[in-house]
Amino acid sequence: MKSVLAGDVRGMKQMLMHVHGEMLQTAVLENGRLVEFFMERSKASSLVGNVYKGRVVNVLPGMQAAFVDIGLSKNAFLYIDELLHPHLDKQPEHKPLIQELVRPGQELIVQVMKEPLGGKGARVTTHFTLPGRWLVYMPSSDYVGVSKKIGSESDRTRLRTIGEKLRQNKEGIILRTAAGSESELSLHADVSQLRELWQAIEGRGKKEHAPAELHREAGLMHRVVRDTLTADMDEIWIDDAVRYEEALSLLQEMTPKLLERLKRYEKLSGSGVSLFEAYRVSEQIAAAFERRIPLESGGHLIWEETEALTVIDVNTGKFTGTSDLEDTVFRTNMEAADEIARLLRVRDVGGIIIIDFIDMEQEKHREQVMHRLTDKARSDQTKCSILGWTRLGLLELTRKKARENAVQQLSERCAGCGEIVRRNTSFK
């Protein structure tokens, strides 16, 4: 156990887990700067990844979709693409009609791919994925994929060869970034465990009557250890005894080599300095979720989130530069691209994102700004696609939206005035 204030964190990557009542808040820092933040209530765990046996309630030919009762308050939405083969090359040349694939009253097994958000029900699929520590198991995808973040061609070839050896029949496997240096034995153990899990899910599906839950995805602590803890994580701090023991057990099971980096944080005697305060996480979170976000140069961002999309406006503010206007604008936009990429991860923004960068006259500057944002997005664990400039000079991108993000969890709409207000949630 340790109770020391944060010292020199240059060159370090740290994960801090703060427990506040039923809430587990997790922050990832690089060089002391917040780059990721996520939170989850223990009594309101995520539905994404859960597998259900559902019953088709209604088929909508005009939308090529169906509504499925999976036992939640709102019926889940199943689009036709989620019924076809997971591999695009194996899908029919002409898409069939939805009524040819499902009918009202039919029972089928589905997996939640997107949380119920706003007034919409969950989005479900029949493209099943079971994530492990080193790979993702797909029961019927019939292909092997390797994470694009594994840059070495020799490593990619080695992993692809192992993946082909490990999969059986029509199974699919995606080798995760963390699998880069793992042995074939470790990967074999991972796929065997996930295969057994899928067989158990199928077994329950044959016995249960719809609607029924067949598999519940692991909680936040398990997902963090499985998906986020990588070999480049220098320190893992937890400020709660129960969660510390839980993490200790998970690390012993999944990544024993990281055990020595796990540390228990206790407030300094008499000082009352919490984990998030010691590493300046509290103030960084507060700043990251403001509508107006200052840039170091003197410029600023205006950040607006709606149900349909997120709009980000870049302004020069007080920054006047040292040479000409074009140089000032370009430098502000480059700085903004870095900050926007970071904040998309911290705020866990999903859906359509439109960025109104300051107008640039030179095409090479526009290309450099888009390239900078694309490059920064590669470190994002959530899929982020930079689509390019619109005819109006706006940069358009999308980021996968699966769960309620931190802004939605921290805010609520006032019943009286209709304004969005921040909930009284502690970061201390």
Automatic annotation (TrEMBL):
Q: Where is the S1 motif domain?
A: 49-114
The organism's taxonomic lineage, starting at the top: Bacteria, Bacillati, Bacillota, Bacilli, Bacillales
Q: Which NCBIfam families match?
A: RNaseEG
Q: Which cofactor does it need?
A: Mg(2+)
Per the record, its GO cellular-component terms are:
cytoplasm
- Please give the InterPro entries that the UniProt record associates with this protein: NA-bd_OB-fold, RNA-bd_AU-1/RNase_E/G, RNase_E/G, S1_domain
Asked if Magnesium is a keyword of the record, the answer is yes
Choose any GO biological process term that the UniProt entry carries and state it: rRNA processing
Q: What is this protein called?
A: Ribonuclease G
Q: Does the keyword Cell membrane apply?
A: yes
Q: Please list the GO terms describing molecular function.
A: endonuclease activity; hydrolase activity; metal ion binding; RNA binding; RNA nuclease activity
